[in-house]
Amino acid sequence: MKSDTFTMSMLFDFYGDLLTDKQKELFDLYYNEDLSLSEIAEQAEISRQGVRDAIVRAETILRETEDRLRLVRRYGGVESRVRRIAEAAAYINRENIRIKNREIAAQVGEILTLTRELMGDN
Predict the structure, then answer these.
(1) pLDDT for 87-96, tens place per residue?
(2) SS in 3 state form for the chain?
(3) Based on the domain organization, do 32 and 82 belong to the same domain?
């Protein structure tokens, strides 16, 4: 079942290098290309059960690694906090329009630049 696609994709982004090349390929076809097990089996010239087993093993490796390291969880927390910082800085910037303090404007600009960089919105 693919109801957990976003989570699995995030885990793959963080820990995908821990998988074998074959596991990466099958995982990508299943989660990112949205192919069925049968379609992947035909393309990879292995059994449907072989595809399923490889994907389940890959999922297990990714989940167990996240359980130990919690990098995805931490990233989600940091990302939401950076967004809140950006929102607060934007509010200060809007309020500063009345005051027109250049130093505040410069500092807010720096905060917004840094939050964009942290969010990958450069």
Answers:
(1) 999 999 999 9
(2) CCCCHHHHHHHHHHHHHHCCHHHHHHHHHHHHCCCCHHHHHHHHCCCHHHHHHHHHHHHHHHHHHHHHHCHHHHHHHHHHHHHHHHHHHHHHHHHHHHHCCHHHHHHHHHHHHHHHHHHCCC
(3) no
Q: At what angle do helices 48-69 and 5-15 cross, to 10 degrees?
A: 70
How many domains are there within the chain? Answer: 2
Mean pLDDT of the chain: 93
Token pair listed for 100: 């027109």
Q: What is residue 4's DSSP assignment?
A: T
pLDDT at 77: 86
Tokens 């917004």 -> residue:
112
Predicted pLDDT of residue 122:
60
Q: Both 49 and 79 in a single domain?
A: no
